[in-house]
Design brief:
Keywords: Membrane, Transmembrane, Transmembrane helix. This protein is mainly alpha-helical. It has a domain at about 35-115. It is built from five helices and no strands. It has helices spanning about 5-25, 35-65, 65-75, 80-90, 100-115. The termini are far apart.
Length: about 120
């Protein structure tokens, strides 16, 4: 079997081109690995759930029996402790859940602070 002389340089060129394409694609082309895509999807999903349930939390703040004390505590609290106040009040616990949703508590605290 006779292999042409140009085969070796052609294979080196193809390998170098593939490596350059991968570097450009992952650094500047927006390519991501499967793990990164899963992480981005999970983060976006949690954000979307919090956005969808924020009106529920705000509604809870207007109809709860302890709303006056919780809202007063919320206005006096620092930005960092507001989430904890919302979680303790139960307003960030969706129906059927046992634990409060952290992202929902953050979103609700921001919505109540703006109101």
């Amino acid at each position: 079997m006779h292999i042409p002389v140009w085969t070796k340089p052609a294979l080196y060129g193809a390998a170098a081109g593939a490596i350059a394409l991968a570097i450009v694609g992952f650094n500047w082309g927006g390519w991501v690995t499967g793990g990164s895509a899963q992480e981005m999807a999970s983060t976006q999903s949690a954000s979307d759930v919090a956005t969808a349930l924020t009106p529920y939390c705000v509604q809870q703040s207007t109809s709860a029996a302890n709303r006056v004390t919780v809202l007063a505590d919320l206005k006096e609290a620092s930005t960092y402790s507001r989430r904890g106040i919302i979680e303790k009040s139960g307003w960030a616990t969706p129906l059927g859940a046992e634990d409060p949703n952290r992202d929902l508590a953050n979103a609700c605290a921001l919505a109540l602070a703006d109101a």
